[in-house]
């Protein structure tokens, strides 16, 4: 009789109010404002149709590069973090001394602010005094010493590398938990059958880890599309527009007072995320149904 | 879902929360609600109803029941939520970047970045500032490591 | 045969440990760099190497606290983090319970 009674509805009001006003409302407004000429100079806002979208997608400006960079960033960092994270996870589920120390060290970059990481790597990647170039010179590889953050050809690669450094521990930690949840009996059986380490990995670890890898991939894709902080801290989109991603673009438009274009960029991201989210939820519902 | 900072500014102006400390706190709260609710909910849904029922029969008042029976059961996940929220908020700097104009209201992360801009020749000072800004998160991380990992894996493994 | 396998195992174990240490050190190098240089004087920190400081300059920290206005920003950070943590946790507990069966006979 009491079972069907729920906690009172007002329990949810506080959270819901905040969420709707500060999260949902701006997104909905954003899509509406994308069709206007809203800017810091305009007293009133006019409907301008698809003009902003034409601006964003036209080849004349650097917006194409922003979108391209965002997708490139997402793909590269997702792949690299998963591969490196998986390798680290496999390594750190073996019998290693001071296991928890190593795990803690590798997770450490994740708890630092992206802004701090950005500053640290401005020091490390400094062409003259940076640790990386000094290390390269010390082992006689002077040719490889580069202007990591100021050469427009490699700056974006450097940004991605820093982000991989920061993020791989996170993926590793999730994958370690995934590997630990695999029953050791599989490995014992494989040992009896005389399987080597690679075969164990290929035929036991990898297939059983696929659900976890899917989750880390999804998390990374969402993170990658939204990336702002690392890029802002390292290069702020420069040199030129070489490392501009979507959200640094939004920030610049905001700073210039071109609110409508900024909103348009944001709205494009909202739509992309909704599509990603839709497939994610669909996948998870299917996955949940399969397990049950 | 991504945040639309430009229109959010409009909303913040409208509710008069722009450039206020209250506004920033509410913003952080709003952005971190979804993940945390997701975490706690997976715990709440696992509490067996029998526990509730037993306590009701023992004559506990509803609120007392919630405080004395349900909350202690949620303690592990609540610590996780608290640790993660603290770390995320400490490290975040984008909200203040957009919505806090006056530097007296800036958090440490933004201040250190500003400091870096002014004193970029004095690496020793910049480094000291970085160390001081990171010290709290590293401390919380070392103390709450167990709970961070628990929260992450609860979110990820169960999907 | 058996001893050869045991030998191989032992080398594998050594290799795994060495690899773990190498990776940890590479990962930590940037962080150590910051820590080490925060104790140097301005001249020796200007080339940002991993050499240990001649004598630790604790004064760097007091200078930074003063110049970087770290007092007020620390309090800001603390306020934001603590208030968000408290508010978020409270609201989330409430929201998370919504929709779950409540045992009470009267609403709390």
Walkthrough of the structure:
The complex is a heterotrimer of chains A (292), B (159) and C (108). Chain A is mainly alpha-helical and 292 residues long. Chain A has a single domain, classed as MetI-like (MetI-like fold, Orthogonal Bundle), CATH 1.10.3720.10. Helices cover 71% and strands 0% of the residues of chain A. Chain A contains twelve helices and no strands. Chain A has helices at residues 10-33, 51-57, 63-91, 99-111, 114-124, 131-138, 155-180, 184-192, 197-225, 229-234, 246-256, 259-291. In chain A, helix 1 (10-33) crosses helix 12 and helix 9 runs antiparallel to helix 12. The longest helix of chain A has 33 residues, at 259-291. Chain B is mostly helical and 159 residues long. Chain B is built from seven helices and no strands. The two termini of chain B are 17 Å apart. Chain C has four helices and no strands. Chain C is flat and about 65 Å long. Chains A and B meet through helix 1, helix 4, helix 5, helix 7 and helix 9 of A and helix 1, helix 2, helix 3, helix 4 and helix 5 of B.
In terms of topology, how is this protein built?
The complex is a heterotrimer of chains A (292), B (159) and C (108).
Chain A: H1 10-33, H2 51-57, H3 63-91, H4 99-111, H5 114-124, H6 131-138, H7 155-180, H8 184-192, H9 197-225, H10 229-234, H11 246-256, H12 259-291
Helix pairs in contact in A: 1-12, 2-12, 3-7, 3-9, 4-7, 7-9, 9-12, 11-12
Chain B: H1 5-14, H2 21-44, H3 49-57, H4 62-91, H5 94-99, H6 108-118, H7 123-157
Chain C: H1 2-37, H2 42-45, H3 59-67, H4 70-97
Summarize it.
The complex is a heterotrimer of chains A (292), B (159) and C (108). Chain A has 292 residues and is mainly alpha-helical.
Descriptive tags:
heterotrimer, A: 292 residues, mainly alpha, MetI-like fold, disordered N terminus, C: 108 residues, flat, disordered C terminus
Class derived from helix and strand content of chain C:
mainly alpha
- Residue stretches of chain C low in confidence (pLDDT < 50, at least 5 long) are 103-108
Low-confidence stretches of chain A: 1-5, 288-292
Largest interface: pair, residues per side: A-B, 63 and 56 residues
Give me the strand/helix succession of chain A.
HHHHHHHHHHHH
CATH class categorisation of chain A: Mainly Alpha
Mean pLDDT of chain C: 76
- Helical residue percent of chain C? over 70%
The percentage helix of chain A is over 70%
| CATH H-tier superfamily of chain A | MetI-like
Overall domain count of chain A: 1
Average pLDDT figure of chain A = 81
